[in-house]
Write a structure and sequence with these properties.
The protein is extended. It is built from 18 helices and 10 strands. The termini are far apart. The strands form 3 sheets. It has a 5-stranded parallel β-sheet, sandwiched between helices. It has a 3-stranded antiparallel β-sheet with strand order 6-8-7. The chain is of the alpha/beta class. The longest helix is centred in the N-terminal third of the chain and has 71 residues.
């Protein structure tokens, strides 16, 4: 036992002495390098410099300057690499946090859906008849025995029988560029509809920018089939609402309450809005030939609603009072419009159609579909499981990771100043916000930053030329084309240059 104790004490003592010697040698080496050797360098230099001539001193100064610059450059590069590493780590941390948030949102979505099912079950099943009796008793004084929203109540019952739950697996966690490619292959292989990737990129970037999208083009250019195919891709049927020339106000679109019969006229548009509240996936309501009636008349309430920053105030007033027989998602006579819905309007220039006013174009993103993709072979592709929350998280991630570069922000600012001075057209806060949303998403979908800026400036700013008298600005168009090419580079702003050239020909 004593022999082992002596050995262990000697071992620890030797180990500590070796560790001490190691650090002592490092200290001696640093002292020698930074103190002794440096002093020796100056001493040697003092001896040798006595023999320098004028040429020798000039060479010394030049060498000293070059050496100093080289050392500063190395230090600068080291700082840059360190900053890049720290920035990269911070981005990775943000990505990890974002994915954790997505996972939490998925869980919250499932919990909310279950809670909603429970609420609807309590309200409608198995005591539907009891509730109807209660509604009949409360409505006896106003002379009706039937609920005010029978179609919407039927949708509630269908939801209870078949809850629309979406479960996303690991294979569904795709990026925006992958989703774009998957949709192009899906529509070609299953629907026989062919789209260029850039057209789909523009549409997804529009989804991230505004709740209102306008598709313009000649008949047969795919204005209606594009959002329809995207709805099928997300495993739901979009609501297609043919706009009638007789529409004069919001009652024609949303419906109205008949005080005599105590029934609400439930339109297809209202049913589409209500269906979106029962779903978790992206949902599209297509206003087909939306300019067959005056958009600013029948669609004004919806447009005004999308301008409100607080999404909790996106409500449509339907009835003035509460009734226990009302559907679950109509609260005190109001329907809260779900954030998973987009309104897609198609516009065709015909003799019996109306012009879309500038205030509608300002709030929407407009895409021209006059081109047509050639048929191509695509691998068989299944539809896609995707919740609105996941799609929205991809948009938010795009804003964080693909913010417009400072150089292009300055170019946009200079173009704004030029157009205000020369053409009396300003970008405005709404357009600047839309540019900041559209371009990063377009880049995340696989496009370039310059191409995204080109499209959004053409569709949001240059389109304003159609609302003014071209005679007053015609002489400025040549200068504007030259300035855009000088600012962004010749050949980069295809949409803008092509649009301005067409205006000159007009």
């Amino acid at each position: 036992m004593s022999a082992f104790a002596d050995f262990y004490v000697d071992f620890l003592w030797s180990l500590l002495k070796n560790i001490g010697s190691f650090f002592a040698s490092i200290g001696k080496m640093l002292y020698k390098f930074f103190v002794t050797d440096v002093g020796g360098y100056f001493k040697d230099f003092g001896i040798v410099s006595k023999e320098f001539g004028a040429f020798g001193w000039i060479c010394f100064i030049l060498v000293a300057i070059v050496s100093s610059v080289f050392v500063v450059f190395l230090f600068y590069r080291f700082i840059l690499l360190l900053r890049r590493y720290i920035f990269h780590r911070s981005r990775e941390v943000k990505k990890d946090k974002l994915m954790q948030e997505i996972a939490k949102l998925q869980l919250q979505t499932e919990e909310l859906a279950k809670e909603n099912s429970k609420i609807l079950s309590k309200k409608l099943s198995p005591t539907v008849s009891a509730l109807m009796d209660e509604a009949a008793a409360s409505d006896m004084e106003i002379g009706t025995m039937e609920p005010r929203f029978p179609r919407l109540l039927e949708m509630d019952r269908d939801y209870i029988a078949n809850p629309m739950q979406i479960y996303m697996g690991d294979e569904d966690m795709l990026g925006l560029s992958e989703i774009v490619r998957k949709f192009v292959d899906y529509s070609a292989s299953q629907l026989g509809l062919y789209y260029e990737e850039d057209t789909v990129r523009l549409f997804f970037a529009a989804l991230a920018t505004s709740k209102v999208i306008i598709l313009e083009g000649v008949p047969g250019s795919g204005k209606t089939t594009l959002p329809y195919a995207l709805g099928k891709f997300f495993k739901n049927e979009p609501s297609i609402i043919p706009v009638e020339s007789s529409w004069r106000d919001r009652n024609d679109l949303v419906g109205y309450f008949d005080e005599f019969s105590k029934h609400f006229t439930e339109t297809s548009f209202l049913c589409g809005l209500y269906a979106a509240t029962l779903r978790q996936d992206p949902y599209f309501i297509i206003l087909d030939d939306m300019n067959f009636a005056r958009v600013e008349y029948y669609f004004s309430d919806v447009l005004a609603m999308t301008d409100i920053a607080d999404i909790g105030e996106w409500k449509l007033d339907l009835v003035p009072s509460y009734s226990p027989s009302d559907p679950a998602n109509i609260v005190f006579g109001k329907l809260l419009v779900s954030q998973n819905v987009w309104f897609v309007g198609t516009v065709t220039s015909e003799e019996n159609s109306f012009l879309i006013p500038d205030e509608v174009y300002d709030r929407a993103v407009t895409i021209d579909l006059n081109g047509k993709a050639e048929p191509f072979e695509a691998p068989y592709t299944e539809s896609y499981n995707c919740t609105y929350f996941y799609l929205e998280s991809l948009f938010n991630r795009a804003y964080l990771e693909n913010a417009i570069s400072e150089e292009n922000c300055e170019r946009i600012r200079l173009l704004d100043v030029y157009m205000r001075e020369k053409c009396n057209i300003a970008f405005g806060n709404r357009i600047m916000r839309q540019i900041g949303l559209f371009v990063p998403t377009y880049v995340a979908c696989g496009g370039s930053e310059i191409a995204g800026i080109d499209f959004i400036i053409c569709s949001k700013v240059l389109r304003k030329f159609t609302t003014i008298n071209l005679e007053y600005v015609y002489k400025e168009l040549d200068g504007l084309v030259s300035y855009i090419q000088e600012l962004f580079g010749k050949g980069n702003m295809y949409y803008c240059v092509e649009y301005l050239t067409a205006l000159q020909k007009m």
